[in-house]
Amino acid sequence: MQVIKNNTIFVNVVFAFVLLEDKPKFNSAVFALFLAIILTIWVIIARRHLKFNAAHPKEVYSKLKPVHPKDLEFIKSVLLKTNFFFASLDEINQKKFAVRVMHFIRSKKWVGIRGFQITPENKVQIAASAIMISFGLSSFVLSRFRQIIVSPDSSFIEDEQKFADGLVNKKGYIYLSWQSFEEGFSNSTDGINLGIHEMAHAVDFSGLIFPDRGYILTKMMDSYLEDMKNQLNGFSEEELLRPYSKTDIKEFFAVAVESFFERPVIMKEKTPGLYEFLKEHLKMDTASILRAV
Ligand SMILES: [Zn+2]
């Protein structure tokens, strides 16, 4: 009985098998115990799946609770002033976007640090930076990340032991400096946007677009290098993607997504392989939606 007290599934399974071996004739009590153990394992696996697999139908748009029209109007009024992507959508897609923003807001715990008071407007703007990236995908809540932490400006983050403007931590939170977030959206054509950058990491880590991440990100890099071989015709690499993209492959992806939204026409023209890659995987043609620089 000492074994059962340890209360681990693995030990219980072994224990059940030992009992079965001791008694060659069918023993219904042991069989029931065995079935109970299998059922417990199944429930645990199913719960983990619900919690961590962001692509689960639980997050699918059509299965979510309705949103009050007043909330939709509020979201629209905030985003028409602050989000260039939302402003370029037609009415039907603006409604879809606003509904997704509301569900994203509801699904998170919002925490202001160093005295920052998060307003309803702040929440809408931050949620929108995530919804932009996942807008072409069926799943968008990023359930792996349960908490959004916002500071007035750059803060020291204990988990990373460094000062940061933004980061996505695999413990389940997204951290943003509000000052940098606002700066990102104040210029929508320079290819620098903290909110888009961090949410691109969050979408990437959620496995929404890259089930086989290592392989697909390498393919993305290959298509970009192929673009480089074909020359940028006088256009510098830094003008398209800021040098931080060279840090590693996940930063390359996040920086490329910033440009995919803020400089889609240039990206499509100068690095068509990279543009097509992002268009295919994010299921969105930003160059035609935005028709911007
Ligand atoms: Zn990054």
Task: Describe what you observe in this structure.
The chain has 293 residues and is of the alpha/beta class. It has three domains: 2-52; 64-188, Cyclin A, domain 1, CATH 1.10.472.150; 213-290, no CATH class. The chain is 59% helix and 8% strand. It contains 15 helices and six strands. The chain has helices at 2-5, 9-22, 28-52, 69-82, 84-87, 91-107, 120-134, 178-186, 194-205, 213-229, 237-240, 249-262, 264-270, 272-282, 286-290, and strands spanning 109-112, 147-151, 155-157, 162-164, 166-169, 173-177. Strands 1-2-6-5 form a four-stranded mixed beta sheet. Strands 3-4 form a two-stranded antiparallel sheet. Strand 3 and strand 4 (162-164) form a beta hairpin. It binds zinc ion (ZN). Residues 197, 201, 251, 254 line the site of zinc ion.
- The figure for the number of domains is 3
* Quaternary structure type: single chain
CATH fold-level name of the largest domain: Cyclin A, domain 1
**H-E string:** HHHHHHEHEEEEEHHHHHHHH
Task: List segments where confidence is low: pLDDT < 50 over at least 5 consecutive residues.
Answer: 1-7, 13-18, 49-58
Q: C-alpha Rg, in Å?
A: 23 Å
* Name of the level-1 CATH class of the largest domain: Mainly Alpha
